[in-house]
């Protein structure tokens, strides 16, 4: 990056312990930041409180330590930021970028609302109603959004027409939970993140985040999306669907597998090294250009 210090991050959701897919993201974001003498911050994405699994946060922290990761500064918890999210949402409401909505998903289904790339495209039924925000969901008005595009450092150019293909997405749900899209944009800004590395399942979401940066007048970080680790059924490994936790007793083997998945150079002798030293070596040889976006069809069979 041309200006200033690189600040990257790892932002797991505590809906379960880390699995091989999360390890791949942690390794990539860590080595990429450190190879540029950058910082690597840790954020626990516990905004969606009903999805948080008891004990998962401490399991995640324990695994990261067992795998030799060292993060800079304090861990940021989304659950400590609800007042901030609310104040920023008020800002958008005052700018008339957002509106309260009383439509349920079911009522929209019954109306035969069409679906876009990320679920129903909301037909702006409540946009002009001036409903008071309390106890209602809040949507971002994307009418003026047009094309949202960015150049991903791994996947290349990516674009979509937010207004036509996604529509007015929710920033706060009717149950009071702030949307991931709102939280991630505000958190990356508060933590001064300028390089975001995460799974390719979030490529589409990035277009939503770019539009939020515009509405909040925030700088846009650089994005690098990583190929997804797929299980033998062809599904993304995920904490929610109970993917196997990484083994804290054998970090070397899993770190080497993660580096191989990322198409980085490794050496058989590394199996005998401490995880911190493997990460140091991996950082030395790190080259994000070696990552192949198409490896997302590679099947990971836990050994
Ligand atoms: N919390 C998300 C996850 O665990 C990652 C979001 C992000 O990196 O922006 O999949």
Level-2 CATH architecture of the largest domain: 3-Layer(aba) Sandwich
CATH homologous superfamily of the largest domain? HUPs
In this entry the ligands are: glutamic acid
Cα-atom Rg, whole angstroms?
20 Å
What's the pLDDT, averaged over the residues? Answer: 93
Shape: elongated
- The CATH class assignment of the largest domain is Alpha Beta
End-to-end distance, in Å?
38 Å
Structural class: alpha/beta
Task: Encode the helix/strand succession as letters.
Answer: EHEHEHEHEEEEEHEHEHEHH
* Largest sheet composition: 3 strands, parallel
Strand order of the largest sheet: 1-2-3
Strand tally? 12
**What would the CATH topology of the largest domain be?**
Rossmann fold
Tally of domains: 2
Proportion of residues in extended strands: 15-25%
> What proportion of the residues is helical, as a percent range?
25-40%
Number of helices: 9
Low-pLDDT residue spans: 296-303
